[in-house]
Specification:
- The chain is of the alpha/beta class and 220 residues long.
- The chain has one domain: Alpha/Beta hydrolase fold, catalytic domain (Rossmann fold, 3-Layer(aba) Sandwich), CATH 3.40.50.1820.
- Helices cover 31% and strands 23% of the residues.
- It contains five helices and eight strands.
- Helix 4 links the parallel strand 7 and strand 8.
- The chain starts with a strand and ends in an 8-residue tail after the last helix.
Length: 220
């Protein structure tokens, strides 16, 4: 798990990078929750998502948004953080230029940033959005959503009510050509306290299903 420092739009960004053994291995980018509410790349969920992808042969990067940890800059309410995420993906692609595909996994605020990034990057073929803050941020940019993915949240999430996540899922499910898998973790709150392992198991099951059909374009 080598520490890395790479250039971002507002200065250096701090990350942890797991290189892939195969030159054409897919890339995964992990985005953490809100920087002003304790979000860092070392959040337990981000850490476990990172290893989930690494165990499946991905080249994986998790990093701190601007102003977090050793990353330079200041919180920018999403716009700058989206630029940070784009710079992070650019950096991984310079390390793995032969990567055949890319996935993005984000938690809460990171899910919002990640879904904006996938709108801009056609190479993103899958996403995992954990507790996307559908009531706090505007997701109308997903018009249409270009990739299939998983939206997963806690049954007892008081930060992002279930009805708001359901409304987002319902909107995305009307689009042709993509599939949105929607799952709910029983009894879990926004931070999945005492339910992190169940969350990661569900994410891993979804990823394994997708990887199992990765060569069938009709399934993506």
């Amino acid at each position: 798990m080598p520490e890395v420092i790479f250039n971002g739009p507002a200065g250096r960004l701090e990350g942890r990078f797991h290189p892939a053994k195969k030159k054409n291995a897919p890339i995964a980018l992990i985005l953490h929750l809100h920087p002003q509410f304790g979000g860092t790349m070392n959040n337990q969920i981000c850490y476990k998502l990172y290893y989930m992808f690494a165990q499946r042969g991905f080249a994986v990067l998790r990093f701190n948004f601007r102003g977090v940890g050793r990353s330079q800059g200041q919180f920018d309410h999403g716009q700058g953080e989206l630029s940070d995420a784009a710079a992070a993906l650019d950096w991984v692609q310079t390390i793995h230029p032969d990567a055949r595909a890319c996935w993005i996994a984000g938690f809460s605020f990171g899910a919002w940033i990640g879904m904006q990034l996938l709108m801009r990057r056609p190479e993103v073929e899958g996403f995992i959005s954990v507790a996307p803050p559908a009531n706090l941020h505007d997701f109308s940019f997903l018009a249409p959503c270009p990739s299939s993915g998983l939206i997963i949240h806690g049954e007892n999430d008081k930060v992002v009510p279930q009805k708001d996540v359901q409304a987002l899922v319902d909107k995305l499910k009307t689009q042709k050509g993509i599939t949105i898998d929607h799952q709910e973790i029983p009894g879990a709150n926004h931070f999945f306290e005492n339910h992190v392992d169940m969350l990661i198991d569900q994410c891993a099951d979804y990823l394994d299903r997708r990887l199992g059909v990765i060569n069938d374009p009709q399934s993506l």
